[in-house]
Design brief:
Length: 193
């Protein structure tokens, strides 16, 4: 389980780097094409040329790149939750029939897994509590990305406070106009955390 998990995480990291590099290269290509077009034309046409390239810049900088980063965060959280679920299933095989099945998580899955692993399997979460709390906030961020495209509902004060505090403490993720912004490098930090 651990070898496969690490291998999968390495593949996710490789994919993230590959995608980030390609998105940046594409954005740079648009910039070079714009420069060539400006150099080859008279100044009176420059505004029209800028306008013709604005859509491409917008796609790479404000649409494609954020979609990639949001998707990566969602996928990585889901992967982590699935690995924890797999661990629970494997532990279930070691216990008498239905010991864990009767307590199988519902509702708040992550907290249910923690309770299940603590009470049924005797896991001690003291050593990894900070990482577990980190994962809890990533879950809130994943939910915010999934259900409101990253817009933070300020009316949900407990949720918005936790996400705000997380963003202040961690590089590569921030809030701008009540929207989550994920910067280059945060996905790598997320996997290595």
């Amino acid at each position: 389980l651990c070898d496969f998990t690490q291998q999968d995480l390495n593949n996710y990291l490789s994919y993230d780097l590959y995608s980030e590099d390609n998105l940046k290269a594409s954005d740079n290509e648009v910039g070079l094409a714009l420069t060539r077009a400006l150099e080859a034309s008279e100044e009176q046409y420059h505004v029209d040329i800028y306008d013709s390239y604005a859509s491409d810049f917008n796609k790479f900088q404000n649409i494609y790149t954020p979609i990639h980063r949001k998707t990566m965060l969602i996928v990585l959280y889901n992967f982590c939750e699935c690995q924890i679920e797999t661990l629970c299933h494997e532990l279930n095989k070691l216990h008498p029939k239905n010991v864990i099945d009767d307590k199988w998580p519902g509702g708040d899955v992550l907290n249910s897994y923690r309770k299940l692993l603590t009470h049924t399997a005797g896991f001690n979460f003291d050593e990894i509590d900070k990482k577990w709390q980190y994962l809890q906030v990533i879950k809130l961020i994943r939910n915010t990305l999934s259900h409101s495209e990253g817009e933070i509902d300020e009316r949900k004060t407990k949720l918005s406070r936790k996400i705000n505090e997380f963003c202040k403490k961690n590089n590569g993720i921030r809030i701008h106009n009540n929207h989550l912004i994920i910067d280059r490098g945060f996905i790598r930090e997320l996997v290595t955390e």
